[in-house]
């Protein structure tokens, strides 16, 4: 079973400032972190692997961003991901929701076509649009469930516990599917061991450019 986790690197919220002229975030010189909701998604993927020892589960993280986003993906490998893809190209810079979802879809189609489940954070704390997961699922033509807090695997289906205005709801859907995650599945902070830190350097982290994808650059 292949689980893809979409990861975004975002500025450290406590240190970021806003350009008064453009109204955009000033990212230069600001330390970046893994978007917290994306980290929740990765933690859930790791929990699924731990809770299903008889199912061979491969966790693949994918991100779109500048070269320094490799640090975020390396952290994911340290935490337990098996493989990483970084979509990094000058023509990806400034991509909106539509272009981001299209690029992620093309990468998944070409390099991970046999995926079973995609986990995303419900939103990024910088852009805060919460639209990329829905757009990506639509592009891939797969079921989508949002505001998930837990997932259980049942043969070719998943059962998702999700938040709603009245509490929680249980939804079942077939695989492949996409689930956006709104809370951490753990009640404690997980830290990689020294062995995890060493092993992460041996795991594959591939850089993907626009030339590697079947996509017209004028659409980006």
UniProtKB/TrEMBL annotation:
Give the Electron transfer flavoprotein alpha/beta-subunit N-terminal domain ranges: 22-217
Matching Pfam families, A to Z? ETF
Q: Which residues form a coiled coil?
A: none
GO MF term set: electron transfer activity
Q: Which protein are we looking at? A: Electron transfer flavoprotein alpha/beta-subunit N-terminal domain-containing protein
Question: What is the scientific name of the source organism?
Answer: marine sediment metagenome
